[in-house]
Amino acid sequence: MSRISIVVISENYTDSRWCLDELAEIMECHRRFRQVVLPVFHYVEPSYVRHHRGAFGVAFQRRSQQRSYIEDADYLFQVWRRALRDAANLAGWHLKSKSEQYHVIQRIVQDVLQKLDNASLSITDYPVGLQSRAQDVIRLLKAQPRTACTVLGIWGMGGSGKSTLAKVIYNQIHREFSDKSFLADIREAWGTNRGQIDLQEQLLRGILKVKKMKIHSIEWGKAMIKKTLSGTTALLVLDDVNKDEQLQALCRSRTWICPGSVVIITTRDVRVLDALTPDHVIRTKEMDESESLELFSFHAFKKERPRDDFIKLSKQVVSHCGGLPLALEVLGSYLHERTKQEWTSVLSKIEMIPNDRVQEKLRISFDGLSDDMERGIFLDICFFFIGKERTYVTKILDGCGLYAEIGITVLIERSLIKVEKNNKLGMHDLLRDMGREIVRERSPEEPEKRSHLWFHDDVLDVLTEHTATKTIEGLTLKLPRSSSVRISTKAFEKMKRLRLLQFDQVQLDGDYGHLPNHLKWVYWAGFPLKCTPDNFYPKNVVAIDLRHSNLKIAWKEPQFLERLKYLNLSHSMCLTNTPDFSKLPNLEKLILKDCPSLSKVHKSIGNLRKILFINLKDCKSLRNLPRMFYKLQSLETLIISGCSKIDKLEEDIVQMESMTTLIANNTAVKQVPFSIVKLKSIGYISLCGYEGLPCDVFPSLIWSWMSPALNPLSSIHSFGGMSSSLVSMDIHSRNLGDLSSMLSSLSKLRSVWVQCRSECQLTQDFRRILDELYDVNVTAMETYTLQISRHPLRSLLIGMGIYYQVINTLSNSISQGLNACGSSDIILPGDNYPCWSAHIGEGHSLLFEVPQVSHCHPKGMILCVIYSSNPENTADECLIGVLIVNYTKCFIQLYKRDTVSSLKDEEWQDIVSNLAPHDKVEIFVVFGHGLTVQKTALYLIFGESTDRKMEASPKSMTPVSMLVNN
């Protein structure tokens, strides 16, 4: 098949049926196989070809009049029209006169020669989505100064398309370099007898353009490479690097690289990039559903879309592949021309036993782990801890003696796991399946001899047949609530090494003393008993999670659990009292959320010297906290929201010297203790939802944070140790008084949200204070304007709400639109996004009115800031804060950079959901030294009331996304 087709289209082109048939075939190859098509419009306008107008249209009409002589005329004319339209939409050449003919031919020849350049590398036949990804990377490379070398890392799990992306980038930029070399499959070649020297010779042959190169030793090769690379501007791609020693031999440091050179390294282990301190590290992302289906279809059906009768099955396979290109290609090819019954059989099989070719590629990273501890951590996460918070998992696995802190870091660096939103551990489904298959294949016929048991039937067989062995280290079993299965505790007698136990709605009969003493994690949702047996608790347990239990009391006698750090009894409807805590010396986290019958907290809670977090949310029967509670000097976070019968917080709260967060919404507190202002570490206080309070309760509290000189109530309340570290206050009140003075006096206030209910009115002073808040931060910066005006504009996008993924899609369009001279109309790409409202302002602030959008509500914001800066300054380093003022609703929000990343999704969503049509809102963006804001724009995103949402990125994206374009 030809790699390039040149199509010359003239006015009378359609007079030839052979030409039309050939064009249809060429455009089909273009669609299916990405064949390059170069149209030449010979004395005819491309638009006439596209729409069948003018003389070209007349000729096509003549052809149409011959329909009665053509078999299947309707179908053929549809095919021809599409082929002509698609060809006219391609970039080509328009020959308008004979005088242009020579130059056009020269350009065509040059273009074809470049496309046929032998230096180009062979890539996949179906490069779905690769061009856009490659262009994103190339833009990064071109933004780098030519006065220095550029090092780019491409990092990701096996089969994610790292090497293919590197090849596409190489093909598109290699002509800019006279000297270049692409070293493929370094990991594999390194292990052969002469692999190391062969790679050095290959590198030098490419750079020096010689056919032969003889190197006698590794060290001699290093010297030659250093001398060669440092003396020429080169493009070097090092593919699949997995060891430091490989870079040591091929490109030891940046000092080896000539300014203007580009070095691209692909790897599964981000740590190996450290030696060259890369300028950018790109993590490969999974393909989205549309791209996945297209790539799979090319391999399974040899066309862009599945056959109509295979669409449902195709989507099931695509879902299983999780956007991994390798899996889509392998399974698509395997299923090509198979029957529906065979497809169904394959789907059932891969859910149990993953495909060998895919597993072989993925397993390279697992086998490359340095010791059994790292491999053990990976397997434990595969089976039990996907979606669990990283710190929680670390403490449990540390309790198992696995050194989890460094182990989890290594797994992240090797692309085997990732940290997702809210610090939770994530893993690609195919990596999870690989880990489970590794365990299964060790004993495929005898599940009792595996280290981890998770498959429902296998677990039930082992437990009901009493065939367990000491090999078992982890076990999970989930049963429906209606299940009548009861398991004897004797089934656990031989599991001497059982560390991790996960039950859901399981009922045991017999002596709980049969449970192994080595258990470190007990997760038992729906624990069936009213009280735990005295011999239930293993002495070395680290975490106990008995959520949704039937417990009325946790235990009758105090349990000595020296290593217990985490206790969760939340959603236990019958629990009336907390446990006795007197023998839990190392407890750090206590969760008793939504225990509506809980009426008493045991006074021994004051003995918890290492407690960091307590959640009593929605314990509606709880009337008070014992005095000993206030002696918890280590406690950092206390949540008592929804404890509607708690009517008082004691002045003794001042003893809780480590407290950073107090969330006490919707309680019955009559008086806020003024001693709270003496807490030196307090960072966030939320006191929303109070009812029936005196009008002056909250103003007194707020004034108490001020310096005595500015405090009008200082004669009544005088405090010597005011808090100076308050991060955020969230206060609802009937009358907050003079907001101007409050805002101007709060000490080190980093984030404020004050929402007034009715009486509070904005004054001129209020507006003046807002201006002052900005002036304080930018006055010193203004002097830099002249110095940095010569630097190019950059853009910063800050996304708020639920449409995070839109940020990446729209960044270029927004930036280009704002940079366009005199332009204020921005066209946002894509038909499937929600409604948009664009507002653009000059400088650092933007005043707008929220528009009325029929049947839609605000769902998110994208704030775009165009700024200029010195090259060494970036917005993510110099952003100080974002101030949002709603003049209609009378509230303000000020977020500084050091607190903004800690806000949760729902908090950002609260900001957006507070906006209503016709609200007058102003946004201020505050930068530090070295940056000058040129323009500010807000894209307000509206979605349907049915909460149609865009899915968030799988990557570790925070509620505020920052993207800097150079």
TrEMBL record:
It comes from the Eukaryota. GO terms for molecular function: ADP binding. PROSITE patterns: TIR (PS50104). InterPro entries: Apaf_helical, Disease_R_plants, LRR_dom_sf, NB-ARC, P-loop_NTPase, TIR_dom, Toll_tir_struct_dom_sf, WH_DNA-bd_sf. Residues 1-116 form the TIR domain. The keyword Repeat applies. This is TIR domain-containing protein.
